[in-house]
Amino acid sequence: MATPVAPPAIQPNPHPPQTTPAEPTREWYWDFGDIRLNFPPDGVSEIVVMEQWSWHDDVSQNHTANSASRLDSYRQDQIIQRLQEPIPTHENRPPSSGFQLAIVPCSFQSLPCVGIELLDKMNEALGLINHHHHYASVRSGAIGTFQMADGSWLFARPRAPDFSSLTTILRYTPSTNTTRGVIYHDSVLPQSSNITAEFAMCPHPLLIPLIACELTLHNNVYHLERYQTTLEQMEGATGYGVLNENAEAVLDHRMLVKALSQARSGVHLALSTLRSTKSCVEFILRKIDWVDERLSPETHARLKARHASTALRERAEFVASTIEHALLRGGVKERLEGQHSTLFNLITQNDSLLSTSIAQDSREIAAASKRDSSSMKIVAFLTTFFLPATFVATFFSMPLFNWDSPSVSHVATGHFWVFWAVAAPLTVVTMVCIVAWAVWHERNTRRMERKERLGFSQVVADEAMNLKRAATMREENAGANGIGGGG
């Protein structure tokens, strides 16, 4: 995957500058031996090494410098040997400017895929501090420059709130006018091959941090475009938007609420990262003159002849302006909030219509029940009206009576007592069974209601316990992230 740009005759430097101490210098604000964030290597991800070196004979603006660039990918077992290679020379002269960057991929959790042990070795090879030891380096989005013991300067920008931001840890050595460092990113940088060309035109030490901010801007604008597409689709679905005023459709409120929540969270995260990136660009603007004052006379004269500081300042101002306009792009945040209100108003209207429909159905059911009740009253009245006559007719039609008997005292036969002997106990048994069933049904109903109440209380208690466990886990994770540094 290497695409070298015709380097001039490069020979190993017989006296390479001592820019890689055996152990990186640790200032008091980095030295936290018991604060670490452990993460295993995946053993698969490759590390891209990009470098650009230039050799100038004088400071003439019209002079064309000899330069060499290199872009390769290395396995994790090869990267240390690659980073320990000496800085190339041209005609036995060290480069007058240049950089070497190791682009380290990160997992979805924003942890380097190379593992803690290899990361320590890479920092040692590049002369960097182990910034992942620092308790404030996990996604803080902070930015700063720190002077090291050997006179070099460390430029550190840990991760911003969004996963699409770049972590940049660079070390600039004024005596050699070279920069070495690491860029952590979640995916392959599509513009990485352009960094060497940009540096050849403006070899200022702060250019690479500014390009990292530009790449972060590019990624977040891409995310905002995706969320704007989601917004336009939502406006089309609800019919309340810039171009969809009369649209009518059957809405899936559940899917719309889900898409809306995802878009709002993504937009807030992207805007937060853009604001963090803007503060980094403003920091770079404030540091341009500060860095120029600390350059060697030769480097300062060379950059002044090429108007590098002026070009860098104008570029940084342009990036800051671009971020300002990206924050206002399409009014995505405000339109999403408008769609949020619109969607929930539509849900409320739908619920109101549904409640009205249910009330209308209930009214019709009540009217039908009233009509049925009137019919039942008529049936009950007729049954009650004819009940005595029916009972008398049924009773006297039994063969227990002999109506042909010449005497009234002999109308009832000798078996008349059998009727009462059977009917009376059967009536008592029937009434006892009915009363027993009624008592059992009442007790069973109360027992089921009590069980349901206990079950609901248990569900509430279990849910409260789950929430408590989740809160405890979040606190533990926050504590772990707070005491460990990350790339």
Report the sheet with the most strands, covering strand number, pairing sense and barrel closure: 7 strands, mixed
- Poorly predicted runs are 1-29, 481-487
Q: Roughly what percent helix?
A: 40-55%
Tally of DSSP helical segments: 9
- Give, in order, the helices and strands: EEEHEEHEEEEHHHHHHH
User: How are the strands ordered across the major sheet?
Assistant: 3-2-5-9-8-7-6
Overall pLDDT confidence: 78
The N- and C-terminal alpha carbons lie at a distance of 25 Å
Number of strands: 9
- The domain tally reads 3
Shape: elongated
Specify the structural class. Answer: alpha+beta
Indicate the radius of gyration in whole angstroms: 42 Å
The proportion of strand residues reads 5-15%
Transmembrane segments: 378-397, 417-440
Biased composition (Pro residues): 1-19
Region (Disordered): 1-25
Organism: Aspergillus mulundensis
Explained architecture:
Keywords: Membrane, Transmembrane, Transmembrane helix. This is CorA family metal ion transporter. By secondary structure, the chain is an alpha+beta fold. The chain has 3 domains: 1-201, no CATH class; 204-368; 391-429, no CATH class. 53% of the residues lie in helices and 12% in strands. It is built from 9 helices and 9 strands. The strands form 2 sheets. The protein has a 7-stranded mixed sheet. Strand 8 and strand 9 (178-185) form a beta hairpin. The protein is elongated.
